[in-house]
Design a protein that fits this description.
alpha+beta, single chain
């Protein structure tokens, strides 16, 4: 059984360890190597170097218990299900159409402005969920064609539901 140590990273925007900006965990693997992970908007623990990174210079790290990590996971899942970013902003949704229609687009993107004012986006992949994406950046650089049509969350959810049903039927 893994023995995890959990850490909450707080920032000026999220200054409380009970409601941190980032949740991390660390443990020793079977070879005695230290492993680190963060719980991300992909709703999974993924490898991270945030604890050992120099990027923490403007952040505070607090050791927390496993229950704090579970609360963070549940809160992030809830925000993602409501279409809200980690910092409480609403997502905007786009249908990417490249020889397709808004009812069955090439892709569905959700976008937001991060705490530093930069644009971020994720693309939905059937069977995988939301994944970090750079479609609009690649489109701006001429790597992709098509257009982007703003849609609401309900429309995005309907498209995703159809895609998932298709995937299930195709087995």
């Amino acid at each position: 059984m893994q023995r995890y140590e959990y850490f909450a990273i707080v920032t000026p925007a999220r200054p409380r360890p009970e409601d941190p900006a980032v949740m991390l965990r660390r443990w020793l693997d079977e070879n005695g190597q230290v492993r680190e992970e963060s719980f991300t908007t992909q709703l999974a623990w993924v490898p991270s170097s945030a604890l050992t990174s120099s990027a923490l210079s403007g952040s505070d790290v607090h050791r927390v218990d496993a229950q704090a990590a579970v609360r963070f996971e549940n809160a992030l899942r809830d925000r993602m299900n409501r279409g809200v970013t980690v910092d409480g902003r609403q997502y905007s949704y786009l249908a990417w159409m490249d020889g397709s229609t808004v009812d069955d687009p090439t892709g569905v993107l959700r976008a937001w402005t991060n705490a530093h004012g930069g644009e971020q986006e994720q693309r939905y992949f059937p069977g995988q969920g939301w994944r970090d994406s750079y479609v609009r950046e690649d489109w701006r650089r001429g790597r992709y064609d098509g257009t982007f049509e703003p849609i609401d969350k309900a429309t995005a959810d309907q498209i995703i539901e159809r895609w998932e049903q298709r995937r299930t039927e195709q087995g």
